[in-house]
Specification:
By secondary structure, this protein is an alpha/beta fold. It has seven helices and seven strands, in the order βαβααββααβαββα. Strand 1, helix 1 and strand 2 form a beta-alpha-beta unit. Helix 1 packs across helix 7. The longest helix is centred in the C-terminal third of the chain and has 37 residues. The radius of gyration is 18 Å and the shape is globular. The two termini are 32 Å apart.
Length: 200
Amino acid sequence: MKIAIIYHSGFGHTKMVAERIAEGARKVVDDVILLTSKMAIQHPHLLIESDTLVFGSPTYFGNVSAEFKLFMESTGSAWANQHWKDKLAAGFTNSSSINGDKLNTLTNLSIFAAQHGMLWIPLGIMPQYDSAGKQLSEPNGMASYLGLMTLSSNSHEEFYDPADLHTAELFGQRIATLTQQLKADSKSNIENFTFLTAKQ
């Protein structure tokens, strides 16, 4: 099993999130690779060889960064040949404001995955609340569901709430676990089909 995390990072924050997702995923599977969007353009075979692709971009003006969009638009051949069809996909984004229209970035990443015929993994981590009903910062302090949202300072490589990085690690574990399950189910289905065919 291989998971590829493709990201663009303008100031280092998205890279840090990508690394924590990878850290969580490696608790479940061994083969997790980190690729910048430029590296992914240069080595498309690494994406074809992967079972799951995780896309990450900072949110700039309510959308993915121009550099990540360049990667997206470079995948025409993979789209035409359906190289990524039925692979798993997930997404994450970071910005320096609580909202910043980050949801639009995740929506664009999920539509990108859908156009490639991929199966989208939502964050799947419920926010937590104290006895008074106040939301706690961990996990999923941004209360995002389509994918992972994180909040950082505008320049320095720091996060307003370090719990965001813990949520990234939990997301990585979830992605890897679902990848493992899908591969196991796929192998089981192939074995059952082969067995039934042999009996006919």
